[in-house]
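Let us walk through a complete example step by step. Step one is to write down the protein sequence. Step two is to encode the small molecule, zinc ion, as a SMILES string so that its atoms and bonds are unambiguous. Step three, shown after the inputs, is the structure prediction itself.
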Amino acid sequence: MAGPVAQSLTGINIKSSQNRLLIKNGRVVNEDGMEDADVYIEDGIIKQVGRNLIIPGGTRTIDATGLLVMPGGIDPHTHFELEMMGAKTADDFYKGTRAAVAGGTTTIIDFVLPEKGQSLVEAYNHWRQKADNKVCCDYALHVGVTWWSPSVKKEMQQLVEEHGINSFKMFMAYKDAWMLNDYELCQVMETCVELKALPLIHAENGSIIARNTEKLLAAGVTGPEGHALSRDEEVEAEAVNRACVIANQMNSPLYIVHVMSKSAVQALRLARTRQKQPLFGETLAATIGTDGSHYGNACFRHAAAHVLSPPLRARDTPAAIVDALAHDDLQIIASDNCTFHEKDKELGKDNFSKIPNGVNGVEDRMAILWQKAVNTGAMDPCRFVAVSSAAAARAFHLWPRKGRVAEGADADLALWDPRRERTVSAHAHHHAVDFNIFEGTHVIGSPQYVIVNGRVCLDDGELRVVEGFGKFLPTPPAAPAAYGARERTSDASDAPPADTPSPRASPVYTNGTPTELSISNKQMEGLSVSGCSTPTGRKMREPGQRDLQNSTFSISQELEGLDTKTSVRVRNPPGGKSSGLW
Ligand SMILES: NC(=O)NCCC(=O)O
Ligand SMILES: [Zn+2]
Ligand SMILES: [Zn+2]
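Step three: the predicted structure of the complex.
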């Protein structure tokens, strides 16, 4: 008798402590505001957010005093278990998602990349097989359109309608491998519009890169420095501009992956003034956390470890890219985690064009962003949440189930300690690879707890992930952020579908026409815009924007005198003027 009773009692205890969780005394941060509030979680879902909550007995309590309770990070760009350029990435779906969770990321979106001529659905099934039993956190998938034919078009439809895919990546680079020509890009984008899927673009001019590479090799430049020389900023910016023009002609929204240069940001900024449909810009932790000076390192291993495409840029680029993220020229930060062991990077020992492309980032993305953007004062914690989580949730139609601390949302949380100090190192990271491009970077701010679907996976600094615990997230088409913007005339029209949880507070949007919103200093007196995120990528321009950088606010109020098609929710900070953050 004693055995079964004890077992069942233990079972109850385990069940209750796993299923019920109270996070007390923390400061909840969303993209549009912060509040001191407790968070109660049951069965993987956030059930209550507020003060003086009534909580059932047997609930585990985490004291979050001094911690920021933020939505877990969403990294919309990873490559786990990818075979590329004759090598296979070091991080598989287990080690990759384990590293993600260690750094505060609770959802990743990986890329299915079919071989030329391979069925897209077959490649998708292969990716599901690789990932499903290994992921430690939830994941979704983009599918690459690496070749084109009528059968590919049919399979895109099948993937959207039957397999939960709502985004397709195209390459303007990797000539003779994944690259599509402009005519093909037009057709893929048209198909995306028909399916209400979001087209993603790797924007670099592959033909110029191929020719430059031939010339550099002929001139005896074979080392990793040749990688950057073969594809300078102009080569990226031209492709960004061309991709935007093609999207505009096809009347398509567009998402540019891994924007790496100031010139590319400038091209995006210009395009956005004329773009008819939403335009998203993604950058990488690598871009803000390091720079292209490493390509000149005499050690091949060191220089090659930094090779990715587009390449890292000049030393002034990281600060400029942080600024672009802070001011909504860019909306999202990803990692493009694509790690290769030293022996694989050596495939390009005598020819830089054969170095497998890719770096780490899924683990350190959030801490690097915090260090480079929040600790420097470029960004407030709300904007941090927007670019590291909420904006990706919106773009890929996971919002507000993901990317938000709110009743009804998935209990994916990063309990962030803004005082926790550490030095990034390959000796301490959780990647499979033995090199870290952020080696030696001192960061202040890291997660102390990470909760994945209600399970405490980083527990007071100790990593306790479970292989296969995560699940595949089907992403439906017609994300409002990509396809709903033109119809939107008020916050209400952006309401989530009936089957998704409603957020606690209305998000901030500019919407309607593709004009830039300008707010005068007079209009801004005593007011702060709530959050800085705009799902359509529309910008809020000077002088209003700067005034908003360090603001906290609570009471909603509509600004008068703005274009009637533009609805901006503003909040009056307690006491009239902006106060400190936390
Ligand atoms: N970015 C990179 O260098 N490697 C991963 C493949 C890609 O995203 O282009
Ligand atoms: Zn790419
Ligand atoms: Zn990539």
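Step four is interpretation. The pocket of zinc ion (ligand 3) is lined by residues 77, 79, 336, 338 (CB under 6 Å).
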